[in-house]
Amino acid sequence: MTLTSKVAQAARKRTERPMPRVLVVKDVWRLTPNMIRVVFAGPELDGFPSGRDGGNCKLMIPENGETKEHFVERLSSGPPPVRRTYTVRKFDAFTHELSIDFVAHGDEGPASRWASSVRAGGFLGFAGPSEPKFIDFDADWYLVAADPSAIPVAAVALEAMPRDSKGVAIFEITSALDRQEIDAPAGIKIHWLVHSDPHKASTRQEDLIKAIEWPQGRVKTCIAGESAVIRSLRDFLINEKQVPREDTYISGYWKIGLIEDQHQKAKRGGAD
């Protein structure tokens, strides 16, 4: 085999990906007025890896009224479906059920539109999941913050923490009715902040975080949400509080005024 052919073969191996799973909906309900939980089940989840709660996944959204056969054909031959990034909220290996939470904002986005109308027997494409980003619980104090888009990853982190953990969790929600039950350690103080219009910038999380009496010892963070908020908080944590970068999981999940494809392009260009 020539060097050229070896390079070509290696490139193919890097770019080849397994076909997405086509998951079938078992149940769906409103977890809160602005959050929808969809539970998937079936043989399509055979071999699903354990320990991936909080990991990223890619969802491929069928068109309204599209048949499963046509959708499967598009996955293999194109044109490709719309893809959106979501978080594995929970995979139950015993019942073989996968839960994913969707922010409900009507028909503004394809994933929200799908989740708002889907019923048992519905389907979508699934790729992933990745390893969770927040897995090492060896800090003296934790700071968790999320807007609705990041509540699933923050909730997974809180539920996985040792029961003697201490810290603060801040959730910015659209309505007071969007509070969720989260099995956080008793030493984590949870704040629920209401910001009724997510299309407008908010400094409520940042204001509260800056007002916190900063603890002694090692601090770790699990923070995600709108990119402008994330950019400001990253600057505060790293430059002012000098939290080491390896102890800060902090990620911009979306940006006001941009759809996901535009936001991902902006992130690749160096913006948050």
Automatic annotation (TrEMBL):
<dbReference type="InterPro" id="IPR017927">
    <property type="entry name" value="FAD-bd_FR_type"/>
</dbReference>
<dbReference type="InterPro" id="IPR039374">
    <property type="entry name" value="SIP_fam"/>
</dbReference>
<dbReference type="InterPro" id="IPR013113">
    <property type="entry name" value="SIP_FAD-bd"/>
</dbReference>
<dbReference type="InterPro" id="IPR039261">
    <property type="entry name" value="FNR_nucleotide-bd"/>
</dbReference>
<comment type="similarity">
    <text>Belongs to the SIP oxidoreductase family.</text>
</comment>
<dbReference type="GO" id="GO:0016491">
    <property type="term" value="F:oxidoreductase activity"/>
</dbReference>
<dbReference type="InterPro" id="IPR017938">
    <property type="entry name" value="Riboflavin_synthase-like_b-brl"/>
</dbReference>
<dbReference type="Pfam" id="PF08021">
    <property type="entry name" value="FAD_binding_9"/>
</dbReference>
<protein>
    <submittedName>
        <fullName>Siderophore interactin protein, vibriobactin utilization protein-like protein</fullName>
    </submittedName>
</protein>
<dbReference type="Pfam" id="PF04954">
    <property type="entry name" value="SIP"/>
</dbReference>
<feature type="domain" description="FAD-binding FR-type">
    <location>
        <begin position="18"/>
        <end position="136"/>
    </location>
</feature>
<dbReference type="InterPro" id="IPR007037">
    <property type="entry name" value="SIP_rossman_dom"/>
</dbReference>
